[in-house]
Amino acid sequence: RSGTVPGVGLVHAPFSLLPTRFPASFWKQACELTRIFNELVDRVSLDGKFLQGSLSRTKKVEDFTAWLLEIHAKMMAVNKKEDLNQYSEVLGLDSERIPRNWAASQFAEALGKAWVEYNNESAVVTMVVQAEERNMYDQYWLINHLKESYPFVMYYLFPFAANL
Q1: What is the SS3 assignment for 24-82?
Q2: How many domains does the chain have?
Q3: How far apart are CA 65 and CA 97, in angstroms?
Q4: Which GO terms describe its cellular component (predicted)?
């Protein structure tokens, strides 16, 4: 049934039988670059025409991106703020010897704070879940963290269909 029934699937995560050295200096550098990358993403998100132009070739071959860009264009036309996020927080490790991964809770915290900053009680957090999603637990943990910290935020799970 894996891969043929929605919500049922098995994906082998990459792993190593032996520990792999990863210098602390590389980890610190990655953490520093994260701030710079986030600022870049923020600045790109403020320029809708640039974003649409940059992804114009991608949307021709990737249905999900095309669909998100179509929504983004409609929102730009009515001058509403919308974030276009295409990433997944996935495979958080939990070990004493590996730095903690708080991706799900921090992502939920960012969504909750953005909702508060938007200052509109009718605003909602919308999660678009692809058909045949095999990482459905990402959304599950994200929603749970959001409910715990921001129980007053409305959210919707919206299934993506390529034929929309």
Answers
A1: HHHHHHHHHHHHHHHHHHHHHHCCHHHHHHHCCCHHHHCHHHHHHHHHHHHHHHCCCCC
A2: 2
A3: 37
A4: cytosol
Residue 55 corresponds to which amino acid?
A: L
CB 160 within 8 A of CB 130: yes
State CA 25 to chain mean position distance: 27
Write b or e for each residue in 94-121: b if 16 or more Cβ atoms lie within 10 A of its Cβ, otherwise e. eeeeeeeeebbbebbeebbeebeeeeee
Give the domain extent around 72.
24-86
Please write the tens of the pLDDT for every residue from 65-119.
888 898 888 888 877 555 555 544 444 544 565 666 677 788 888 888 888 888 8
